[in-house]
Amino acid sequence: MIDVGILDRGAAAPLHEQLAHGIRAAVLSGRVRSGDVVPSTRALAADLGLARGTVVTAYDILVGEGYLIARPGGGTVVAEIARTATTAPAFAPSSSLVSDPSVVDLRPGRPRTAGLVDAAWKSAWRRASSREVAPDVGSATGDPALREAIAAHLGRTRGLDVEPDDVIVTAGTSDAMLLTVLALAPRGARLRVGIENPGYPRVRRLLARLGAEEVPIPVRLGSGFDLDAAEAHDDLDALIVTPHHHYPLGSRWDAATRSRLLAWAARTRTVVIEDDYDSEFPHGRVPLPPLQLLDPVNVVSIGTLSKVLSPSLRCGWIVATGALRARIVEARADLDPPVSRVQQQALALYLAEGALARHTARRRRDYRHRRRLLLEAFADVEGVTLTATDGGLHAVVLLENAPPAAEAAVVDALAARGILVSPLSGYAVPGTVVDLPAGIVLGYAEPSTPVLMDAVSQIIDVVRAFTDFASASRPNPAVRA
Q1: How far apart are CA 26 and CA 31, in angstroms?
Q2: Residue 29 exposure: Cα atoms within 13 Å on the Cβ side
Q3: Which of 128, 334, 355, 357 is disulfide-compatible with 345, CB 3.0–4.6 A?
């Protein structure tokens, strides 16, 4: 029996959350130790007078957070709760630092994969790999079963009325961007593509390799995407945007902005490329419809399994219609499909049988819990604003009134402690004037919750040191020479 504290059946918090909190506290306090076997869900439910499903849900939460480890046939045990070292090599991030297992990598884009390989995952891959190997790569657009499963998935989660033929399987977001840009027909000597500034750095690198001209469109803290700046252009071949959850600032387009932008795109014959990269995790916000739903002719929608499963799978999709779809398919045929048919068949089974939906629900609960912990941790930190937390898997820590040099200093100081984060300025287009304060971007999905919160505690210590120094360095107008 574990002492889980008092469970208040009249409290607003659900019983499974109270139970998870009690077990979590027992682990952190050392009342139960690493390797201890916790009671079976049936036994604990009987001891506490709870429904077994309540205990199962609490255990699922704690397994997802990294406090417990579910071992098939061996019961559930308490995990080894490793703490981040407070001292680390005093140098900036390098390949050796990144590969050090003691380093906590909080750079964004890394979901939590612990617990992904469950019975449903193993079953899908076992059945897919036991089939006869196909003599050819198959359709350029992807395995029919996977395209059908993706279409159904988008219908359930994003409200898209998508035909399987409109879906093109890709090796993640970068591959989807590459294909779409290759399919565009430039109106001038060079392809001109509007991009968000700040925005996803890989988009800039991809456009540069293709010889396209990037046209930065400002995105500002508070006001978001600068629609006036976009409408000032009538010669863009395409515009790449993240309207659901801007990367990295977190703003999103309201209905009026979406309608106005799509009217401009139709008038100027601009293809809108919608990167719908993390819509599975809205964190309580009512999701707005994808642009592709509002204008399936002029909008290409790009999605991925990277945030909900893992970037290492290299699997995503493009949704496009009409002549643009035909050109994308031609580009795909020329380059050959990059995702193996065995993987596509396994993922088709995983999606069609509801395993992805169940995994996403578990992750959604886990990430919302982590988000709440972040908000609580930074709530009383003066001189700091936490933003971009209304969705997705990352947050932005703004260093109010700190000089620009403080950003690099904070990143380097954290790297010296073995904690990797990204500088906010790194998302701006080089050579442009961007109205951004100093800040850092951190992902909160991948580490176990104890490791994450230990790292957050150290981030707060470092940030406080720099913000206190910045405050002390500012002249006091009340003091005269």
Answers
A1: 5
A2: 11
A3: 128
Distance, in Å, from the CA atom of 355 to the CA atom of 91, rounded to the nearest integer, reads 43
pLDDT score for 123 = 97
What domains can be seen in the chain, in order of their start residue? 15-78 (1.10.10.10), 95-110+362-473 (3.90.1150.10), 120-353 (3.40.640.10)
Q: In degrees to the nearest 10, what's the CA dihedral of 261, 266, 272, 277? A: 60
The closest alpha carbon to 241, from 204, 206, 273, 200, belongs to: 273
E-strand stretches of 298-424: 299-304, 316-319, 384-387, 394-399, 419-420, 422-423
Residue 39's nearest CA partner among 51, 24, 23, 28 is 23
* Distance, CA of 143 to CA of 263 (rounded, Å): 35
From the list 104, 167, 166, 153, the residue with the least C-alpha distance to 418 is 104
Burial category of 481 from C-beta neighbours within 10 Å (exposed 0-12, middle 13-18, buried 19 and up): exposed
Output the six-digit token pair for 134: 């196909």
Q: Give me the sheet containing 192-197, strands edge to edge.
A: 167-170, 316-319, 299-304, 271-275, 238-241, 192-197, 213-220, 224-225
Gap between the terminal Cα atoms of the chain: 69
Phi-psi region at 73: left, alpha or beta (left = phi > 0; alpha = psi -120 to 50): left
Query: Which secondary-structure segment (H or E) carries 71?
Result: strand 68-71
Q: Provide the residue type at 291 as one letter.
A: L
Q: Which residues contact 60 (CB under 8 A, 6 or more apart)?
A: 362
Per cent of the chain over pLDDT 90 is 64
Please give the structure tokens belonging to residue 340. 């193996």
pTM: 0.78
What local confidence, expressed as pLDDT, does residue 88 receive?
Answer: 33
Q: Give the per-residue pLDDT at 82.
A: 46
- pLDDT lower than 70: segments of the chain: 1-3, 5-6, 12, 29, 73-74, 81-101, 468-481
Maximum distance among all Cα pairs of the chain, rounded to whole angstroms: 85
Q: What is the residue whose two structure tokens read 């739903």?
A: 293
pLDDT at position 472: 52
